[in-house]
Amino acid sequence: MLELTDVSKTYRGGVQALRRTDLVIQPGKVTVLLGPSGAGKSTILRCMNLLVQPSTGTVRVEGLPALAARRSLREHRRLTGMVFQHHQLILRYTALRNVLLGRVGYQRLWSVLVPPNKTDLRISLDALDQVGLLGKALDRADSLSGGQQQRVGIARALAQQPRLILADEPVASLDPATARRVMQLLHRVCQENGITLVASLHQVDLALEHADRIIGLAHGEVVYDGPAADVSDADLRLIYEGTPAPTHEDQLAAAAR
Ligand code: ADP
Question: Does residue 110 sit in helix, strand or coil?
Fold first, then answer.
């Protein structure tokens, strides 16, 4: 559904965050990007909806004309929800008003000046219900706990009625127990709504628990790409330390020296 061809990113100042990469994201699956800080996870995620403009290559979305066309890019972004590490809620707004912001892509410019229409309200309340926060709809975002705020962030993404959710370290700011619950929730709502999920995570255990596919990044390069069920300790060493674990033969050879 989403295809990156020869995509790379060098930021101003010369930092090469992503080397030339080809990737196809299949619909309906959970893909988790793993890798140490600075590996390029956030960059590749943001290249997927062109929040970061790639230095080379193209991003293609099934069913849409080339994203170079403004209308096509707008449609892709409308159908792509984003969940951020720091949720990026407007704290003085109620939970509901934050979730309604997910509907902006469906509205005409002037309609932000008038009260929300019934459809947007229904969809937003349904999204809050899906994350278990219907009872908090009229509470200000700054009165909610960190986990609840992140659930509002997920509801806002859901209100977009997306085909794809890009989640950049969605549980990194939460304590381990809350992180686990929020990740379970994100996975479940994506499954129930047929949404493709691409998330970057730094918790290996959560990644292996929730991902269908793991993409391991190191120094801006994909060093592992395969089913989560197949990830070995050697693969994790390659992702996090840049060195494969010694094979049995290596160990025997070392012992003989
Ligand atoms: P990760 O998400 O794996 O931590 P990032 O994609 O955020 O990695 O960053 C990859 C590299 O690109 C890092 O060296 C980071 O410092 C650099 N980088 C990220 N964003 C920018 C930017 N806007 N300008 C310059 N360098 C950046």
Answer: helix
